[in-house]
């Protein structure tokens, strides 16, 4: 594994590594070659690169054709341009026939709004795809996990969506840490006062909140949920069973993502109190750290919300 920094670079490196001995790996670009940091892939593997221009719907249709011929295409571009502009194509021409197409959506969440703001921040993508039967949704927390998520996506039959970021995420995982097929990784186990579940690019903040809570005498467990609406939530349910209060934290709308998934699991298996921390409004432009703090993702805000729930 070569050295890389950021979720986009992680995607490109994973694609390069897989293509070394697999000529079925394809990259379909809707004018996103530079955005996906994949120019080296196009140079080294020109026969495995398809450019369609600024036409996301065409990219998904082309990928569905490649998959129907036995290839493994990856479509990579901005998360919202993919899941919104090409939503019908993802549904009808990939999910419905259960074709082996992989999607990598970058700039997902709030943190990528430093230059473009709301037009290039996407916090509805999981909610959209969660309604489509057959999609596997992977939510890596940082660059190293994105690398392994992309490689795992290639091994999963059928449609897969990898939610990637903007490159402004804080790396938490070691580069060689595998992407958990169980859908959950427990990071801190201080106690059972509450279970803090993180999804996506706020894990470092949730871990810091756990430390603040510990100083207050509140002992929580922190876990990263990296597969949403998966087919085997047993390990997630096992952690949920240990507590009476759950707090979900996600760089996504409070509707349709982690909070909705955990609420569904609680309702259908063992009722629990679930407090959802996520976005309830549109975002705006600004540096990633300041945006995250402003919209309630500071460690202090997460800790306060958790403590208030326990009162």
Please explain how this structure is put together.
By secondary structure, the protein is α/β, with parallel strands linked by helices. The protein has twelve helices and twelve strands. The protein has helices at residues 7-19, 39-44, 56-68, 79-83, 87-95, 125-129, 143-155, 203-215, 234-240, 258-268, 288-294, 299-310; strands at residues 25-29, 49-51, 72-78, 102-106, 136-138, 160-163, 184-189, 194-199, 220-225, 227-228, 245-253, 273-279. A seven-stranded mixed beta sheet has the order 2-1-3-4-6-5-10, with helices on both faces. It has a five-stranded mixed beta sheet with strand order 7-9-8-11-12, sandwiched between helices. Helix 8 packs across helix 12. The longest helix is centred in the first third of the chain and has 13 residues, at 7-19. It is globular, with a radius of gyration of 19 Å. The model has no long low-confidence stretch (mean pLDDT 96).
Chart the SSEs and their pairings.
Layout: H1 7-19, E1 25-29, H2 39-44, E2 49-51, H3 56-68, E3 72-78, H4 79-83, H5 87-95, E4 102-106, H6 125-129, E5 136-138, H7 143-155, E6 160-163, E7 184-189, E8 194-199, H8 203-215, E9 220-225, E10 227-228, H9 234-240, E11 245-253, H10 258-268, E12 273-279, H11 288-294, H12 299-310
Parallel strand pairs: 1-2, 1-3, 3-4, 4-6, 5-6, 8-9, 8-11, 11-12
Antiparallel strand pairs: 5-10, 7-9
Q: Roughly how many Å is the radius of gyration?
A: 19 Å
Overall 3D geometry? globular
In whole angstroms, how far apart are the ends? 47 Å
Counting copies of identical and different chains, the oligomeric state is: single chain
What is the helix fraction of residues, given as a range? 25-40%
Mean of residue pLDDT?
Answer: 96
Order of helices and strands: HEHEHEHHEHEHEEEHEEHEHEHH
Strand order of the largest sheet: 2-1-3-4-6-5-10
Helix count, DSSP H or I runs of 4 or more residues: 12
Structural class: alpha/beta
Report the β-strand fraction as a percent range.
15-25%
Main sheet overview: 7 strands, mixed
Number of strands: 12
Low-pLDDT runs of 5+ residues are: none
């Amino acid at each position: 594994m070569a050295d890389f920094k950021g979720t986009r670079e992680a995607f490109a490196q994973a694609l390069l590594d897989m293509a070394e001995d697999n000529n079925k790996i394809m990259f379909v670009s809707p004018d996103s070659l530079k955005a996906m940091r994949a120019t080296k892939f196009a140079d080294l593997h020109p026969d495995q690169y398809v450019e369609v221009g600024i036409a996301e719907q065409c990219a998904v249709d082309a990928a569905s054709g490649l998959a129907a011929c036995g290839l493994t295409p990856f479509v990579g571009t901005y998360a919202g341009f993919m899941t919104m502009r090409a939503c019908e194509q993802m549904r009808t021409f990939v999910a419905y026939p259960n074709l082996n197409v992989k999607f990598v959506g970058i700039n997902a969440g709030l943190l990528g709004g430093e230059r473009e703001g709301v037009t290039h921040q996407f916090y509805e993508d999981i909610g959209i795809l969660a309604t489509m039967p057959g999609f596997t949704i992977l939510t890596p927390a940082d660059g190293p996990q994105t690398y392994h998520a992309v490689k795992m996506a290639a091994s999963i039959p059928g449609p897969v969506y990898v939610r990637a970021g903007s490159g402004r995420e804080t790396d938490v995982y070691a580069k060689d840490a595998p992407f958990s097929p169980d859908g959950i990784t427990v990071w801190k186990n201080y106690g059972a006062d509450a279970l803090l579940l993180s999804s996506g690019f706020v894990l470092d903040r949730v871990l810091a909140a756990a430390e603040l809570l510990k100083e207050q005498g509140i002992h929580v467990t922190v876990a990263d949920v990296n597969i949403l609406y998966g087919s085997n939530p047993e390990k997630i349910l096992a952690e949920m069973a240990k507590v009476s209060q759950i707090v979900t934290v996600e760089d996504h709308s409070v509707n349709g993502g982690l909070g909705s998934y955990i609420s569904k699991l609680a309702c259908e298996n063992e009722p629990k109190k679930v407090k959802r921390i996520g976005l309830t409004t549109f975002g705006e432009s600004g540096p990633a750290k300041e945006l995250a703090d402003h919209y309630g993702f500071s460690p202090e805000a997460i800790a306060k919300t958790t403590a208030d729930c326990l009162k």
